[in-house]
């Protein structure tokens, strides 16, 4: 007998890999990772040797908003969408536990996002870094943190998905959450609050309260050789100054791991407490 | 597990805030036959069906073929095939893929899938996406999925509510075949015609409580439901004789409307009424009888509950 967990995981993986969101995401990632300038410069034989270092910084800056966008868009609808059309109730009427259904969907979705990122990042990586393997570590760090960010965003999306009743409400709430985490935070929100309250000490807690910011700083901190290293911003500078790069890095990684674990735990508790049928 | 009780619900209570959808409900369903779960809107029949499936959390205990749905949900659900009111399979999967998907969860052999496709008459549509099937076909596919692991119990939620008359007949025929194979079918319905046609036994819920559990025939007896009889006697000079003959035979509420005599009678006294009239030389030119039906029973029970 194939376990319901495996069946549900496979279906989620298949559905996600066929989704327009993920295909667009994978292709966009490939071109971001490869870097359009690489193609142009490479064709003209004008590629500088430190090009990979330059592109990896740009890559993180661009990947950080994209990863949560696609993760939230896909995860927020996964349970709400099935509930709306009744397939979730039918699935739970089968000999499958809530743990199998929930984690089958979660793991399936995270796996599909991981595959898309591996193919997008990885494919481009092979091409670009064959010219200069020096920056491979930075690149792998960027990929690893992007995967953690995807895990965190999927968990947040699942909280949305188990909390709303319709697919439309789920995608609306998911995109609003993305807007808050990415656009609002990026538009000087932190600066305004800390200046208005005259409280620099709020800068770090507010940063850690956002997995997107946490990932961005963490990824950029690892790009010591990147020409973009100077753009770390006040939060990273504060962390490096007060804790040193190793401790700061550990703190940020631990927080990011919590961002992966806590939302998925909360969403499962909510899902488990709810009646499977409305 | 092979006791005679296949569904055993004990003190089941389901509460939403202050509202009790099910209140201390206890009932047992014996193995075999079609059991109709009846009740007015809000009586709790769908809630109870979903508690049987483990889709709702509740206080109390429900065992399906000996397995507790809350403590041992996987084994309990393995004993159940469920057909919801609206088809809820994945529209992008084909008929065959749907059967495989749910079949693999229940460890079903491929040969069983073919058998079921033939049983529900969908073998020609095996490669079609579910979304392309008509409502009746989707309902038959749901039945095939419900039968995958050959479960002893089938739970059907308003199974014919969305089908046209021909599809209803087809669906009822399939259910009859399954009952002959020994399955226990529990269905909710608000269409009393369904019950008249396929159910032998009923469980009537009202306000979250079990009001009556009985066979249809016993129900009429318990409720003392009468038939309505109409007799045409053209000879007006025989009116007094006719009325006394009818009263003597046990007719009640006799009303004369032109040549027609309308009365309520015990369903077993039809023949004696006609004999009595003949003995009094009342010439009968026509007669008709309206037997009691479930709608009458339903009204009588629920009005009794209201009072």
Written overview of the protein:
The complex is a heterodimer of chains A (278) and B (307). With 278 residues, chain A is mainly alpha-helical. Chain A is 81% helix and 0% strand. Chain A has helices spanning 4-17, 20-34, 36-43, 51-85, 87-92, 98-129, 136-163, 167-197, 203-208, 211-221, 234-273. The longest helix of chain A is centred in the last third of the chain and has 40 residues, at 234-273. Chain A is globular and about 60 Å long. Chain B folds into two domains: 5-221, 3-Layer(aba) Sandwich (Rossmann fold), CATH 3.40.50; 226-291, Alpha-Beta Plaits (2-Layer Sandwich), CATH 3.30.70.100. Chain B has eleven helices and 14 strands. The mean pLDDT of chain B is 88. Chain A binds chain B through residues 1-2, 4, 7, 11, 85-87, 89-90, 92-97, 275-277, and chain B through 50, 53-57, 73-75, 77-78, 80, 82, 84, 86, 88-90, 101-102, 104-107.
Q: Please give the number of β-strands of chain B.
A: 14
SS element count, helices of chain A: 11
Global mean pLDDT of chain A: 83
Number of helices of chain B: 11
Overall mean pLDDT score of chain B?
88
- Sheet with the most strands of chain A? none
Backbone structural class of chain B: alpha/beta
Number of domains of chain B: 2
Number of strands of chain A: 0
Ends distance of chain A? 30 Å
Q: Which percent range fits the helix content of chain B? A: 25-40%
CATH-derived architecture of the largest domain in chain B: 3-Layer(aba) Sandwich
The Cα radius of gyration of chain A reads 20 Å
Helicity of chain A, as a percent range? over 70%
Give the helices and strands of chain A as they follow along the chain.
HHHHHHHHHHH
Give the structural class of chain A.
mainly alpha
Features of this protein?
heterodimer; A: 278 residues; mainly alpha; globular; B: 307 residues; alpha/beta; Rossmann fold; Alpha-Beta Plaits; 2 domains; 4-stranded antiparallel sheet; 36% helix
């Amino acid at each position: 007998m194939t376990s319901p967990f495996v069946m549900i995981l496979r279906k989620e993986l298949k559905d996600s890999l066929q989704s327009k969101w993920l295909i667009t995401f994978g292709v966009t990632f490939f071109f971001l990772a490869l870097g359009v300038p690489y193609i142009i410069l490479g064709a003209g034989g004008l590629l500088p040797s430190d090009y990979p270092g330059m592109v990896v910084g740009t890559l993180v800056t661009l990947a950080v908003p994209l990863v949560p966008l696609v993760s939230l868009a896909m995860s927020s609808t996964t349970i709400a969408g099935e509930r709306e059309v009744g397939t979730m109730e039918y699935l739970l009427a089968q000999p499958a536990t809530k743990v199998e259904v929930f984690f089958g969907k979660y793991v399936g979705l995270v796996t599909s996002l991981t595959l898309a990122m591996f193919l997008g990042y990885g494919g481009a990586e092979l091409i670009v870094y064959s010219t200069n393997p020096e920056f491979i570590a930075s690149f792998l760090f960027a990929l690893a943190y992007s995967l953690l960010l995807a895990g965190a965003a999927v968990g947040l999306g699942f909280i949305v998905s188990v909390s709303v009743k319709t697919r439309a409400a789920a995608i609306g709430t998911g995109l609003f959450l993305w807007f808050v985490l990415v656009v609002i935070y990026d538009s000087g929100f932190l600066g305004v609050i800390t200046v208005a309250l005259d409280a620099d000490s709020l800068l770090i807690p507010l940063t850690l309260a956002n997995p997107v910011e946490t990932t961005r700083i963490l990824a950029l901190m690892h790009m010591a050789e990147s020409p973009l290293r100077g753009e770390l911003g006040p939060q990273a500078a504060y962390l490096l100054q007060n804790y040193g790069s190793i401790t700061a890095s550990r703190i940020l990684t631990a927080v990011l791991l919590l961002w992966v674990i806590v939302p998925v735990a909360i969403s499962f508790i909510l899902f488990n407490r709810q009646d499977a049928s409305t | 597990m092979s006791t005679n009780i296949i569904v055993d619900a004990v003190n089941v209570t389901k509460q939403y805030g202050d509202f009790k959808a099910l209140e201390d409900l206890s009932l047992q369903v014996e193995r075999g036959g079609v059991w109709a779960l009846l009740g007015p809107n809000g009586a709790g029949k769908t809630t109870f069906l979903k508690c049987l499936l483990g889709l709702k959390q509740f206080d109390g205990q429900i065992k399906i073929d000996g397995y507790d749905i809350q403590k041992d949900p996987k084994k309990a659900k393995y004993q159940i095939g469920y057909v919801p009111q609206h088809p809820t399979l994945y529209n992008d999967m084909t008929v065959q893929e749907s059967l495989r998907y749910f079949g693999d969860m229940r460890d079903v052999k491929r040969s069983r899938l073919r058998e079921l496709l033939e049983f529900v008459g969908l073998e020609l549509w095996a490669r079609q996406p579910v979304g392309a099937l008509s409502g009746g076909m989707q309902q038959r596919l749901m039945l095939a999925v419900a039968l995958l692991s050959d479960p002893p119990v089938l739970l059907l939620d308003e199974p014919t509510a969305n089908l046209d008359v021909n599809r209803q007949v087809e669906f009822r025929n399939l259910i009859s075949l399954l009952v002959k194979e020994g399955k226990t079918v529990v269905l909710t319905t608000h269409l009393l015609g369904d019950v008249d046609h396929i159910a032998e036994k009923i469980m009537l819920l009202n306000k979250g409580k079990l009001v009556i559990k009985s066979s249809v025939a016993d129900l009429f007896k318990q409720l003392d439901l009468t038939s309505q009889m109409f007799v045409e006697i053209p000879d007006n000079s025989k009116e007094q004789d006719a009325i006394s003959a009818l009263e003597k035979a046990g007719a009640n509420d006799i009303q004369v409307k032109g040549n027609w005599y309308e009365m309520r009678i015990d369903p077993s006294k039809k023949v004696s009424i006609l004999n009595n009239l003949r003995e009094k030389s009342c010439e009968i030119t026509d007669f008709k009888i309206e037997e009691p039906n479930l709608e009458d029973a339903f009204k009588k029970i629920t009005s009794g509950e209201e009072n």
